[in-house]
Amino acid sequence: MTVQVVLVHGIRTSATMWRAQVAYLERRGNPVTAVDLPGHGTRMAQAFTLDSAFETIDRAVRDASAAGPVLLCGHSMGGLLSIEYIGAEDAPPVAGLIAASCTAIPRGLALQTYRVLARGLDSLPDRGMWLTDRLLDRILPDETRADFGAGGYALDAQDLALRSLSVLDLLAALRRIEVPLWFVNGQYDQLRVNERLFLRVAPRAELIVVPRTTHHVTVMRPQVFNAVLEVALTTLEASGS
């Protein structure tokens, strides 16, 4: 059966960040669903909660699983949510997971520092968008630059979403994940802080580090990330998942 793919975006952005991957998967012949989490993209007006985020992922996965095995792929916050989702005690119907730019435990000083920085950016006259746009203009290629923010930026949901992530028990979830798992990090990603710990804990995990790349690995190196998708899809196809 054909592997189905579900894509879960990171904080502040939306399903549009996956356009390069959606185009690749459609050419390959793999049905794909890129979700908008609550408070993001087409659902900007909705409040973000962990329950509604997990419901969004679960609905997409279960709908896709009716047609074949599912590869779940999440970036940043979407990766953290996907780890927690797959690692639930009543494991959902997922055949494999790509968790990109999310090998960090969102708690303690690191999370507090991130929230303080985000609040500082948000306090600027334009809520920091001038600075954000200049940075993205420098690091993202033309082919994905517009896609990254095409669904808008979920500035109002950011602090609530960050605070919500602190309750995730990622290490317990990782220990329960028995399907193939690929961690994908940019070389200069700030969320590599617990990379080795995640690898030790997850029984079937592999690590792929993309050189000269930041946290925005999916849009900064879209062709490389598509190659990672190819690895995962080929692995699941060969196993008969």
Characterization of the model:
Helix 1 packs across helix 11 (about 220-240) and helix 3 (about 75-85) crosses helix 8 (about 170-175). Helix 1 links the parallel strand 1 and strand 2. The chain is about 45% helix and about 15% strand. The chain is built from eleven helices and six strands. It has a six-stranded parallel beta sheet, with helices on both faces. By secondary structure, it is an alpha/beta fold. It has one domain: Rossmann fold (3-Layer(aba) Sandwich), CATH 3.40.50.
Features:
241 residues, Rossmann fold
Order of helices and strands: EHEHEHEHHHHHEHEHH
Number of helices, counting only DSSP H or I runs of 4 residues or more: 11
Unreliable stretches (pLDDT < 50, length at least 5) are none
The CATH superfamily title: Alpha/Beta hydrolase fold, catalytic domain
* Strand percentage: 5-15%
Backbone shape: globular
Helix content: 40-55%
Structural class, judged by helices and strands?
A: alpha/beta
CATH class: Alpha Beta
Question: Radius of gyration from the CA trace?
Answer: 17 Å
**Major sheet strand order:** 2-1-3-4-5-6
The tally of domains stands at 1
Main sheet overview: 6 strands, parallel
Q: Using DSSP, what is the number of strands?
A: 6
CATH architecture label name: 3-Layer(aba) Sandwich
